[in-house]
Structures are given as structure tokens and as C-alpha cells.
Amino acid sequence: SDPRKVGNRIKFHRRAIGNNDFIACLTMCWLRNDLSYHELRDQILECIYNGAGGIDYWPLVFDQNDAYGQLLAFREILPFEDMIWNGDFIYQRKDESPEQVVGFVYRGEAVVLVSNYQLGDKKVVEIVNPLKRDAQVFDVSAHGTLGTVKANGTVAVTLDERDTAVVYFGEKGKERMGGQ
């Protein structure tokens, strides 16, 4: 149930296959639901942003915890579905790094999952702008604007009580997020 291991396993398959023609199985009819909704959200995001074409999730008992975890994840996936499905897969860290930055570049936009599961209340992760031009940056998970980053520049993303964040680079952030 370690989201980092799930993400690295998915990334390995994505590299080996060369596309997203596989489905990640998060559970095999678990007898108990021992994931919090945050952990479930993180695992779903790790699967999709590391390159899986979908997920298979069927716990023995599906409850409000499972529904809420999926809702949180899908709110950070669906606005970028075209990018995830059609984009070029990118990653900015080695698998052993405590910080991971993985995602997709598509038609002048980029969306990445930033994660760090190390203990600590406040973790700052530097992300290199994956676009070859200046871009607006949005923290999709926190519903906030991080400003503009220059081509090849970096932007700092703070992960406080959360271990992951979805970050968008481009000019259509507010439009993709429903005007938020």
C-alpha cells in the first residue's frame, strides 16, 4: 500500500511497454479497507500520472472512504485527461529520490504529479518547467496560482500535510479547472 512503490512499479511498466496500454490493479478484493481516503487518492494519482491507462479497484466493502478518495483523485485527473492519454510521458527524478515529479506534456501544456512521502510537516519540491517557454503555473491540488515560471526555470511546490500535488503549466489552467 506504499504509494511510492506503486508509482515506481507503474513507471517501470510504462517505460518497458512504451505506452499506457495497461491497467493498474490497486486491490485484489481486500478483506478490509486499510487505506485512508488520502492514501487511496495518492495511489490513484501515482498510477495515472506514472503512466497507467486506468485502475482496477474493488475492495470487498466499498464505503464512503473509498468513494471520497476516488472523487478527490478524479478531480485532479479528469481536467487533464487529454494530456494524460495523448501526451509525452516525462519524469524529473531518479526512482530512488524521495521526491518524484512525473507527468505529461501535450500541445504546449504540461501537468505533473509532485510527491514526497518522507516524514515532515513541510516539504518543498523544486520543479523544472517542462515547457520550452515561459508558463503560468497552477497548484491544482491546492486550487492556487504559483505565478509564472521562465523557460528552463524552476518553481517551488510546498507539500505541507499532503504528500502529493498536481501542478499544471500553461495558459489554460483556470479554464481546465472549471474557472477556479
Task: Report how far apart the termini are.
Answer: 32 Å
How large is the radius of gyration? Answer: 16 Å
What letter string, H or E per element, gives the SSE order?
HEHEHHEEEEEEEEH
Tertiary shape:
globular
**Biggest sheet details:** 6 strands, antiparallel
Question: Order of strands across the biggest sheet?
Answer: 3-4-5-10-7-8
How many β-strand stretches? 10
- The poorly predicted ranges are none
Q: Tell me the helix content.
A: 25-40%
Q: Give the strand content.
A: 25-35%
Structure notes:
By secondary structure, the protein is of the alpha+beta class. 28% of the residues lie in helices and 31% in strands. The strands form three sheets. A six-stranded antiparallel sheet has the order 3-4-5-10-7-8. Strand 1, helix 2 and strand 2 form a beta-alpha-beta unit. Helix 2 runs parallel beside helix 3. It is globular, with a radius of gyration of 16 Å.
Quick summary:
This protein is an alpha+beta fold.
